[in-house]
Amino acid sequence: xxxxxxxxxxxxxxxxxxxxxxxxxxxxxxxxxxxxxxxxxxxxxxxxxxxxxxxxxxxxxxxxxxxxxxxxxxxxxxxxxxxxxxxxxxxxxxxxxxxxxxxxxxxxxxxxxxxxxxxxxxxxxxxxxxxxxxxxxxxxxxxxxxxxxxxxxxxxxxxxxxxxxxxxxxxxxxxxxxxxxxxxxxxxxxxxxxxxxxxxxxxxxxxxxxxxxxxxxxxxxxxxxxxxxxxxxxxxxxxxxxxxxxxxxxxxxxxxxxxxxxxxxxxxxxxxxxxxxxxxxxxxxxxxxxxxxxxxxxxxxxxx
Length: 304
What we know:
The chain has 2 helices and 25 strands. It is mainly beta. Among the domains are: 57-153, Immunoglobulin-like, CATH 2.60.40; 222-301, no CATH class.
């Protein structure tokens, strides 16, 4: 096989005065092997370049706040993996990706002091969050586009249950309701536990104000809960009805925990006490309170 390759004229030699001198005959031996080897090497380099995946990078950091949490978002150009470390008020996420640059934010929020996103060499980065106090958080890896999300909750979600023995169980819950803490204290009695529930006055031997802890201790109760209580002027706040008898009544509509005849519990809204006393001569007088201090123009029912 015969082929021609290009040849460049030497210095001072005009290709025009030497027609066809820029072509010369070449065989298929050593030269062909060198060219083939170079092409194979170039093809291998191209294949290697195509097969090597591009390393992910953190391209941006965003911070937003809401009543329930502070959210940190890292924008990524590829999926990443991370290692989490928590030490008191510090949260650290070590990412197996580089960062385009250093990001620092100090949100105007009392829950977070500072947020730093810093490169760690050429192929790693670190997200460091310093909180004002210890709290709960959650990490999410999102797709389309790739993002790492760190949620910092203002209020801790707590579920605690303690066995007090003899069929009595104590439960404490704390949850978040639009940035406000909602707490629940509950006692659960097992069937045949031997415990019973009854209302009593916090003032013990008379109707009036008193400290709940002292009243529980004086009566020997394992636990006590405010059903209704007196304001500083003697006004009853809340309603307490036990087995068809009112032990405290409030004419201001309020929410209440109710238990029906089947033992099912529910929270009812806008409950208030309404009562009347019928006197001879078709006279009816409205009852303004139950088991509380009598104020001016009050008609109080005492049945405690």
